[in-house]
Amino acid sequence: MRARSVLVVAAASACVMLPATSAFAGTGPAPSPGKQSLTARSTAPSEAGNPMSVKAQAAGVCSDAYQIGATAYINRSGAHVASVKQFYSPKCKANYGYVWVWQSFRDKIKDYDVSTGVYSYARDEVVGQDWWNATNSQEFWSLPADTVKECTAAIGTLRAPGDPVPGQATTAKRC
Q1: Which of the residues 45, 66, 164, 168 could staple to 139 if both were Cys, CB 3.0 to 4.6 A apart?
Q2: Which pLDDT belongs to residue 29?
């Protein structure tokens, strides 16, 4: 019992010594200049998310946008069918939701419904949300979300015909 008490005290002491940090949804390390310039030269859509793609530009995504946080996945029948990411633009001070529908899903399902946006924890609502019905596209960007000073998460949904509700995924909360 004494050993367990010592371990608990040691663990608690270690946590107290860790520095406390916070970051807003738009903060965090930017990709290296080499990665930024590789993406900036191409307008091709990609699973990683290319802010210079035709669909990104049509949605108003700023060219310097980069992914913040980890990727989340929409699952259907136990398999990943789409990726959800959150992007941040320092130049435009905006966040964006992004959904990439996997080719394996697109090969089986021809027309599906998709939405993406940025969930604001402060407002308890999805900001910049956009929807597409009966589409077979692969790349989807939300509209710009003025949420940089708020805790946020990207959200994406995907519904195949015959499914009563969409599958969805949300990235981790960013503050």
Answers
A1: 45
A2: 52
